[in-house]
Batch of 2 targets.
Target 1
Amino acid sequence: MRQGGSLNDVIYKKISDDIMDLTLEPGATVSVQKLADMYGVSRTPVREAVIRLQKKELVVIYPQAKTIISKINLKRIQQERYIRKALELAVVDDFIQNSNAQVIDAMENMILIQKNCISKKNYKEFFAADNEFHKIIFETAEESLAWATVNDVVSHYNRFRILSTKLEGIDRKIISEHEEILNAAKEKDVAGMREILNAHLNKVKSELGSLLNIYSQYFVDAQ
């Protein structure tokens, strides 16, 4: 019983991760059997995972017909980004107050990892390091629950973010902005860090047009 529950969680996380990093593409048609074959497990944990993913709006189930990986919803992107920005800007004061040399080193390390990912075009690891960079801000502010809340609700926004890293020059722009955030942290500049973060988290409109031209099939409410 315990082992089965553990397997359910593992398969749920694996499918969820593959949806989030676009290994399972938005709009792709799947089935419980197809996913079971893909992950080398029985149908039972996959069926359980698909039900959980439907509740998070990562899949759409058409009973007795098909299951589709949810397309990236433009309205949800804006709503999720609003939540992310509101919470992250709110923790800046506590982050600056609690920041120390160890925190600065950890943030610098994430930037180095991102730079190494660029030459390899490793978007998955680049995005993971991007998330870790921002996670450090929340955890240093002692607001881990806020970070967990963010990650629980930003499924459409995060898929947009990982897709945007494939645009020419965006990865280097992200690194440049992270370096600006880091410099503000080093200087204990609350207002400066908040201003940079605000701009950093407001890039949706500037990137959306290019993404819609290249990946229009991944989006809904694109008109």
Target 2
Amino acid sequence: MYIAEGLEVGRLKAMRRAGTNRPIGSGYNKAFGEWLNPRPWARDLDKPTRTHLFWCVDHRNEIERWRETLAQNERARLNHPTAMKRRYEATHKPDEAGTRGANETRAQKLEREIERLSSELEAWRKRAMVEGSLFDLKKDTPKDIATTIAGNVSLPRLISSRRPSPRRSHSLTAR
């Protein structure tokens, strides 16, 4: 984990230097490569091992909880990041329902939530095609209606709809 934490420092510095919040892209790759050059301990690691070390840093809490359940000899044997990742993933395979329950990482929970929301959005779109409206004024709350509108209107149009136009404000004062 000390090596993984050292690489994490390099990753964060490279992202900051590249002006990005994700470790991808040519700017990040160049900055990370420059960070690696004076550090032979990091440069000499092959790319899969570095990738697995990053995985270990990203999943440190789950790994530590899982390692506590292992026998001492198993913990001592699992000291390479690739072996650790393979064994952890083999132990935490999705169940038949496709979820990992308590062992599910935050990223996996978010992915599942995105899938759920995408399905819900698709259902709303189908409803709009059939019924001609994305919401039901009799059943939906104002929050539901606002969420539906926000999800189906472009951001510039949504922002402009919040500002009263000169015509609208004039017609309201004339009444």
